[in-house]
User: What shape does this take?
Amino acid sequence: MTYPATPWILLGKAIASLYLVNINQVRSLIPSEFRVFSVWPGKTLGCVYLADYREGSVLEYSELIIAPAVVSYQNQIGAWISHIYVDNADSVAGGQEIWGLPKELADFTWEEDKRVKVRQGDRKLCTLNYSQQSLAWRQRLTGSAFSVRGVELLQFSAECEALLGLISSQLEVPGESHFASIGLGQPFLTGRAEQMKLKVADPEVVG
Assistant: This one.
């Protein structure tokens, strides 16, 4: 299996939704070394990220990331990714071997700029219905995430520059989905990125 060297530069579009998640529902998904960051009593911040990376990217693929919590380790804060799905085998290999991410293959259906469905074989993972973007502005954002590769605790950053706008969305997670137990509910904020350039850096060993 071949995959590009880091950093990965990915061009395309993405939708990210934010959720308030019950800490007691996701604690078992997170290694004990990390402290779950509370944004409200008993609640942490979760994110569902759907992207379609196309021409000009180091690899072309669609991606679904489930980050059910914000965590901290040694005074550093980042997202914890519990589930991640793509439709490119090289992306699976690179994600697992470089970043220690639990990438798996899945199928993505993008429907006329209003809906995206993700399934794995006969299992439905989720459907996101979303509205069109009406007002947008050029923005640059930086974030970080933690992962585990063997016995190493890793942290890596991602830099995004895109035309960003707020939209409405509705997430459907059937009971058969691998991440149904997280209890994501409905998002309180959804952003849409067009003309996106995403740079995912090489991970650093932090523990």
Notes: Residues 89-99 form the longest helix (11 residues).
